[in-house]
Amino acid sequence: MPTPSKGxxxxxxxxHERLMLANLATALFEHGRITTTEAKAKRLRPxxxxxxxxxxxxxxxxxxxxxxxxxxxxxxxxxSPADKALYNLFSEIAPRYANPNGGYTRIVKIGSRxxxxxxxxxxxxxxxxxxxxxxxxxKKSTAKKTAAKKATAEKAAPAKATAKKAAAAKAAxxxxAxxxxAxxxxxxxxxxxxxxxx
Length: 198
Description:
Blueprint: H1 14-31, E1 33-37, H2 38-57, H3 60-69, H4 81-96, E2 105-112, E3 119-125, H5 128-197
Antiparallel strand pairs: 1-3, 2-3
């Protein structure tokens, strides 16, 4: 008997496990995130990573290799979930992960299921594109803020110079006013000294 693959057996046999993982991968690529048991999520992660890596190549052979796993075997209608999953995988998901070599999925544990107390988890695709998009505008907004601060400082500098000139003019105007009473006091004293000498 061949040695079974590493990890828990998810179905009654290997064929059931393979089909179950293919259905989970189809749902993951169609919706972006799914809720399942922790054991199934851990078994799905490497399969999803391999399929995304094949989709990144984008040639006909890799498309056929992915179609061997993600294929709608029940009905052959044109808009099946498998067709949507393949379209999403090759046109949206694979270009999103053009640079990283792995780490496409994230497993978040969410507690136990109410009925049978099975440990549940959410497996989702990591949003690599969103992170890059949010960091790029942040740099632009920082540059805009810096330019706005410089413009404000330039506007404030002439205003400060004008305020300094106004304060200096006011101080100059106050000084002669302070000198005038002293001169006025000096004038009567001079007049008194002239009267006393006469």
